[in-house]
Amino acid sequence: MKESIDKIVQEGDWEFAKLLKLNDVCRDLAKNYYNSLDASTILELIWETQIDEGGRTLGQIISMECRNILQAEFAGSFQKCFETATVQFKSPTKEVVPDKSINTEQPPLPKTKKERKTVKGEDGIDMPKGVKRI
After folding, report:
1. pTM (2 d.p.)
2. Which of these, 40, 38, 34, lies nearest to 8 by C-alpha position?
3. Which of 14, 58, 111, 121 has a CA-to-CA distance to 73 between 20 and 30 Å?
4. Burial (CB count within 10 angstroms: exposed 0-12, middle 13-18, buried 19+), residue 110
C-alpha cells in the first residue's frame, strides 16, 4: 500500500498553490484512496491501532467480541439440543468379565545368580576359586 501511495504522490501533477494547503490535498487523496480499498485491506490497515485507554487494539477488541458471539451461538445450539433431550435415571450395568480372560498365574521369578567365591592371590588380585594362576 505504501508503494501505491508513493506512486500517486510522485506521479501526480501538483500545482504549488494547492500544495500550500497540503492537509486539504492529503484529505482528498485519502478519501479517494479509501473508496478504492477492499474490506480486508481496511482491516489490515487499522488492525493494530490502539483504540482505548487500556491500550487494546482494534484486532484484540474484534477478536474478543467475535469469540463472545461464537460462544453465545454454541450455547444456543446446545440449548436447542437440551430442549428435546430426554434423561433416564438408571445406573449403568457393570460389565461382567469372564474368568477365562483374566490370567491369575504369575510369571516365574528370575533365578538369582550364585556368588562366586574369590581368593586373593599373592599379587593382590581377586580371582575365582579354582582358577590356576600362572
Report:
1. 0.47
2. 34
3. 58
4. exposed
